[in-house]
Design a protein that fits this description.
Layout (H helix, E strand, L loop, with lengths): L2 E5 L4 H12 L3 E6 L7 H7 L9 E5 L5 H11 L3 E4 L6 H6 L1 H22 L3 E7 L23 H20 L2 E7 L2 E2 L8 H10 L3 E5 L5 E2 L2 E2 H13 L4 E6 L5 E2 H12 L4 E5 L14 H7 L7 H26 L1
Parallel strand pairs: 1-2, 1-4, 2-3, 4-5, 5-6, 6-11, 7-10, 8-13
Antiparallel strand pairs: 9-12
Helix pairs in contact: 1-8, 3-5, 5-6, 7-9, 7-11, 9-11
The structure holds nicotinamide-adenine-dinucleotide.
The site of nicotinamide-adenine-dinucleotide (NAD) has 30 residues, from helix 1, strand 2, helix 5 and strand 5.
């Protein structure tokens, strides 16, 4: 049994990870500031089950606060920190680059500094496929160059990785930076395409499609990411960077067709121009994850999309029922 501190623990990936770690008998400390990027009520629902578990502690706090972090880390002295808290999302980062750097870079450094002070040296850091920018060589491998990010979000993740690498060199931190490739599944962030499209198609409303529909993504089901993070936190040894994806791509148009099939409704397309900051393709080389972590993604996109759509339909039904009870 380990004590694992998850920053961003009420979010999409963090709450799925917490549930899984608790099920394995670990103790989980979740820190989250309920950032208003999306509705607080969604995050409260994410952690409803975890809160019933005596081995789970939720602390509402900002990773940028030195005093609060010192107090929380000092009280709980976690065996390992899974640092997921971040301002997420490529497009909003273009409007607000300073805040993205403040949370994703300075926030990360704040945690690392406090961990050093307390003699805590084990971290898994959530990085992103967006660090690869518009690299032409695919699939993307960890040794590829990441010095041409095309959004402040991507740049903040490169900088976060560098902060981790520096703290490893200076003080011997054990840190694995995991580059997640677009994650989807139950509790997915509402701003992400699969979630947004599913919601709008079910409601028979137009879906905004940016570009010609030929951009391609490697989507990864959340339970596969949770398995990869769990393997990483149990195998920390020095500094490393590892991709976590499915290692298969589908185009935006194929994604929409798949959603239409699983929802049973045709999408109404609202075609818009290509968005700046969006990369053309993401595609993970996962040979390193397989070798180092025994990672082996279990979900195909068809299986994952089927499971997501049925979760979303149930969520909409539950919301309508709880709204009508309140009337
Ligand atoms: N979802 C994806 O497809 C994806 C892909 C690549 C990388 N990532 C990374 O994985 C991590 C988790 O992503 P997610 O999709 O679960 O996002 P999310 O927004 O659902 O979760 C992040 C959580 O961090 C919290 N947070 C934000 N700023 C904070 C602060 N200053 N202090 C404390 N908590 C704060 C938010 O309230 C939120 O609950 C992020 O670092 C993200 O950049 C996600």
């Amino acid at each position: 049994m380990k004590t694992i501190l998850i920053t961003g623990g009420a979010g999409f990936i963090g709450s799925n990870l917490a549930d899984s770690l608790l099920k394995q008998g670990n103790s989980v400390i979740a820190i989250d500031n309920f950032d208003p990027f999306y509705d607080r009520a969604i995050k409260e629902r994410n952690i409803e089950e975890a809160l019933k578990n005596p081995n789970y502690t939720l602390i509402e706090a900002d990773i940028r606060s030195e005093n609060e972090m010192r107090k929380i880390f000092g009280t709980h002295m976690p065996d390992v920190v899974v640092h997921l808290a971040a301002k997420a999302g490529v497009r909003p980062s273009i409007k607000n680059p300073k805040e993205y750097f403040d949370v994703n870079v300075m926030g990360t450094l704040n945690l690392l500094e406090i961990m050093k002070e307390l003699g805590l040296f084990n971290m898994v850091f959530a990085s992103s496929s967006s660090v690869y920018g518009n690299n032409k060589k695919t699939p993307f491998a960890e040794a590829d160059r990441v010095d041409s990010p095309i959004s402040p979000y991507a740049a903040s993740k490169v900088a976060g990785e560098l902060a981790c690498r520096t703290m490893h060199s200076l003080y011997g931190f054990n840190i694995t930076c995991l580059r997640f490739f677009t994650v989807y599944g139950p509790r997915q962030r509402p701003d992400l395409a699969i979630h947004k499209f599913t919601d709008l198609i079910i409601k028979k409303m137009p879906i905004p499609v940016f570009g010609a529909g030929d951009s391609a993504r490697d989507y990864t089901f959340v339970s596969d990411i949770v398995d990869g993070v769990t393997a990483a936190l149990n195998n920390l040894n020095g500094f490393d960077i590892i991709n976590l994806g499915e290692s298969k791509t589908i185009t935006l148009s194929e994604l929409i067709s798949s959603l239409e099939r699983h929802i049973g409704t045709e999408a109404i397309i609202d075609r818009q121009g290509k968005q700046t900051g969006d990369v053309d393709i993401t595609f993970a080389d996962i040979s390193k994850a397989k070798k180092m972590l025994g990672y082996n993604p279990a979900y195909t996109k068809e299986e994952g999309i089927a499971e997501f759509v049925s979760w979303k339909k149930q969520e909409l039904k539950d919301t309508i029922e709880s709204d009508s009870k309140m009337e």
